[in-house]
User: Fold this.
Amino acid sequence: MGAVKEIEKASSGIDELLHEVQRIGALPLQRAETLPPGAYTSQAFFDLEVKHVFKAGWTSVAHVSQLPGTGDYLSLNWLGEQMVVVNDGARIRVLSRVCLHRWAPICEGKGNTSTFVCPFHKWSYTLEGRLIGAPLMDQAESFDPASCTLPEFRSEVVDGFVFVNVDGTADPLGPAVADMSEALANYELDRLVAGSVLEYECKFNWKIMVETFMECYHHIGPHADTFEPDFPAKISYVEDSRLAWTRGFGVARPEVVPDVWDVGLPRFPKINAKECEAFGLYLIYPFHMLATFPDRVVWFQAQPVGPDVTLLRCQQMLYPDTKALPDFPKMMEIQDKTFDVINLEDISVNEKQQIGAKSGFVKPGRLSHLEKAIWQLNQYVAHKITGTSRTLLHR
Ligand SMILES: [Fe+2]
Assistant:
């Protein structure tokens, strides 16, 4: 009886939470609030996000420059799915890397191969996922290796990034972000190559990560000595959102342009003067994040693990010629140190936010006009989880 009551109580809690999310998702920008704290802490809400946001949406898992040749592969884990991104010579595929026999992974890490051979009982697969070898199985009645194929995840390559849609139901991504591809043309994203990587296990909800990435209001706090002097919060802005993506800009004070970028790395050859006056913050919902600078693009990959754990991978994406420079390793070392300092400025306050969200006293907080991207994300989440319409993309 007690257990039943507990379940009833828990489900009434989620109903209340969903109502609140729905209410907040319908507020105009001038009255915007954060989502309720439960949207950041509740396992039940996170489970809904797994189904309706993460698995139903598009996630970037690799860049073509990481798989240039036939047989190049990259393994990853994503929401319980073990995947391998592989260049089969004709195209890039994302396959399940769980062996069809007794579920051991057929590969781990990254490398180059002509076939995947499961280390457990040596079942082997082509780069397309077809089973071509299963030793000592001749006495298994009606077993037909030719009919066995590793499941393939739906994937799309957009601007050089390999995206996966786990449940196969999302609208095609390329057309939905065609205007974003156009806006980013000068960065030649599909030509960039992966540079160094910084990785963090963050003890906070994925939305906190996306929100902090997209707003420059907090420059006056944790980045008071790093971003704020050159990129003041006050002159940052976020554009009206499109259905699939949005963007904002950290604008440099006019007095510091153009020298603000002189950090040693050469600028992208096609970058224009306007693109040197601000850094861009691009978001393809739910969490493909790109920070664009005149000399590099930083790809932020968020991977939600639970309501209060999110993995963050910051991958520097560089122009091919940049990596060939003789003093490149030294320049990159300096860049990585600076970037790590800035990331940790965010992460330390974000971890405290997550603790704050668990207080019994917290309620949704009011948002500044500089946090427009949070208001936009609220609508996206409310739409995906509660089915509300997104009529307020534009003010
Ligand atoms: Fe920040």
